[in-house]
Backbone:
C-alpha cells in the first residue's frame, strides 16, 4: 500500500493548518506593531512637551490676560489622536482662577503641534484675580491630557505643579500725606510705589484721583512711568486740594494707562 | 494510543536514516506511507533550539524592558517573577509540543499551550491600565493596552481552535497528517 505523495491534505488538517498560520500571522504582526509603537513612544517621550512660561499683560477691558503655549513634538511614526488638554489655575490661597480646555486635536507622525493658551481674568476689586496684580505667588496648576497613541493605546496624563507668578505691581502702595497750607491752598503729597515683577514693561501713566469719604473729587495727579521688569517705582507728587475737600477717610481712585489700554485698579483707602 | 500507530508514541518513530533503502520500502514503513519522522533525539535538539529562541521573546526581552524601566525609578506594570514564570511555562510547553508533534498528544498540547497563552494574556489584561507616577511625583500616567491584548487573545483562541481540530483529526484518522507534517 503506497500513499500518493501529492494527494491533497484532508479538510480538517488544512483548516487546522490555516488557523495555525493565521494565529501565528496575527501574533507576529502584533509583535512587530508593538515593537514599532514602543520605539515611536520612546522617541515621543524623549521629545517631550515643551511649554512656555505663563506671561501676563493688562488689556483694555480691565482684565489681565495670561498667555502661554505648549508644543508637542511627535517624531514617531504613529499619530497622537484625540488630544484633549485641560488645566485649572488657582491662586496661592487655593481660589480657582480659571480653567483652560484645548482639543480634541491630532498631531500626526513626524510633526509638531503648537497649542496656544490664552485666558482673561477680570481684576475688579472683588475678583479672585486681584491678588495677581499685587502679590507674588505660586499658582497651583493642575493639568491633564487624554490622547490615543498608535490607534489603540489610550493614555492619560495628569500634572500638578506650582508655577511662580510675578505680580506687575508687587507691594503696591499709594498714600496721601498730611496737607500743608501754602499760598492760600492746601497742598498734599501723593506717593505711589511698587516693584514690577511681571515680564512686561509698564510704560504709560498712572492717574490718581483723591476722593473724600463723601466721594467728592478733591483733585488728582498723573504719574508717568516706564518701569522695566524687576525695577522699583517710587514717586511723590504734590496736589493742590480743592477747597473744602478733606481726603481723610476717602479713597484714591487709580487708573492705569499702558499701551493704549486703560485699567482701573481697586480703590486704595486713605486712613 | 495504539502500539501499531507511529503517531501514538515518539519512541516508535524511526530514525532519520531508514533501515531499508528508500528504493524498496516495506509496504508498511513510514516511507512507503509517504512520511519520515525525525528521530526523538533530533526533535529534542531542535525543540531545545526553539526553546532558546522562545526564551528571548517570552522572557529575556520582556524582563530586560521591565528591568530598564524599574532601574529608572518607574514602577513596573507586572512583576518580573510573573513574566518569567509565564514565559518559562510557555516555552517549555512549546518545546514539548514540538517534540511530541508526531504523536496524538500534539493536538491536546496545542490546546493547552494556547490556553496557557490565553490565561497569560488575561492576566496582563487585568492589569490594564498601567498607572504610574513619574519620579518627582508631579506627573501621573495611565496607559491602556486592553485592545492590543484582546487582539492577541483572538490569536490565542485561533491557535486553540487549530489545536482542537488537530486533536479531532488525530482521533479520526491517527496517521493521516504525518505525510503532510513530515513528507519524505
Residues:
Amino acid at each position: 500500500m503506497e500513499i500518493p505523495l501529492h494527494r491533497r491534505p484532508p479538510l480538517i488538517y488544512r483548516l487546522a493548518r490555516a488557523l495555525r498560520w493565521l494565529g501565528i500571522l496575527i501574533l507576529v504582526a502584533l509583535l512587530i506593531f508593538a515593537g514599532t509603537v514602543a520605539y515611536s513612544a520612546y522617541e515621543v517621550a524623549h521629545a517631550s512637551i515643551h511649554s512656555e512660561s505663563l506671561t501676563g499683560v493688562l488689556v483694555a477691558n480691565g482684565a489681565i490676560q495670561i498667555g502661554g503655549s505648549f508644543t508637542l513634538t511627535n517624531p514617531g511614526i504613529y499619530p497622537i489622536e484625540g488630544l484633549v488638554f485641560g488645566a485649572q489655575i488657582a491662586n496661592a490661597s487655593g481660589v480657582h482662577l480659571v480653567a483652560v480646555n484645548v482639543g480634541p486635536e491630532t498631531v500626526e507622525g513626524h510633526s509638531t503641534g503648537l497649542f496656544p493658551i490664552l485666558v482673561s481674568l477680570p481684576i475688579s476689586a472683588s475678583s479672585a484675580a486681584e491678588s495677581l496684580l499685587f502679590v507674588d505667588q505660586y499658582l497651583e496648576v493642575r493639568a491633564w491630557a487624554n490622547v490615543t497613541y498608535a490607534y489603540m493605546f489610550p493614555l492619560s496624563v495628569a500634572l500638578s505643579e506650582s508655577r511662580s507668578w510675578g505680580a506687575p505691581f508687587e507691594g503696591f502702595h499709594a498714600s496721601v500725606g498730611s496737607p500743608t497750607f501754602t499760598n492760600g491752598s492746601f497742598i498734599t503729597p501723593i506717593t505711589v510705589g511698587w516693584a514690577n515683577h511681571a515680564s512686561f514693561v509698564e510704560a504709560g501713566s498712572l492717574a490718581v484721583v483723591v476722593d473724600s469719604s463723601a466721594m467728592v473729587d478733591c483733585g488728582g495727579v498723573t504719574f508717568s512711568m516706564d518701569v522695566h521688569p524687576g525695577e522699583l517705582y517710587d514717586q511723590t507728587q504734590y496736589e493742590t486740594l480743592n477747597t473744602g475737600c478733606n481726603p481723610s477717610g476717602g479713597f484714591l481712585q487709580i487708573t492705569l494707562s499702558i499701551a493704549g489700554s486703560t485699567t482701573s485698579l481697586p480703590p486704595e483707602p486713605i486712613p | 494510543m495504539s502500539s501499531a500507530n507511529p503517531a501514538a508514541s515518539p519512541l516508535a518513530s524511526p530514525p532519520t536514516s531508514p533501515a531499508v533503502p528508500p528504493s524498496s520500502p516495506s509496504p508498511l514503513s513510514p516511507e512507503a506511507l509517504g512520511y519520515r519522522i525525525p528521530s526523538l533525539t533530533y526533535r529534542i535538539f531542535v525543540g531545545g533550539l526553539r526553546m532558546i529562541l522562545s526564551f528571548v521573546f517570552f522572557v529575556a526581552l520582556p524582563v530586560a524592558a521591565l528591568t530598564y524601566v524599574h532601574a529608572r525609578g518607574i514602577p513596573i506594570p507586572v512583576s518580573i517573577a510573573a513574566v518569567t514564570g509565564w514565559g518559562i511555562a510557555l516555552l517549555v510547553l512549546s518545546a514539548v509540543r514540538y517534540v511530541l508533534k508526531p504523536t496524538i498528544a500534539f493536538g491536546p498540547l496545542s490546546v493547552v499551550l494556547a490556553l496557557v497563552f490565553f490565561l497569560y494574556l488575561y492576566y496582563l489584561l487585568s492589569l490594564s491600565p498601567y498607572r504610574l507616577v513619574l519620579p518627582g511625583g508631579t506627573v501621573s500616567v495611565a496607559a491602556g493596552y486592553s485592545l492590543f491584548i484582546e487582539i492577541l487573545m483572538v490569536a490565542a483562541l485561533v491557535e486553540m481552535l487549530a489545536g482542537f481540530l488537530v486533536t479531532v483529526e488525530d482521533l479520526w484518522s491517527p496517521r493521516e497528517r504525518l505525510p503532510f507534517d513530515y513528507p519524505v
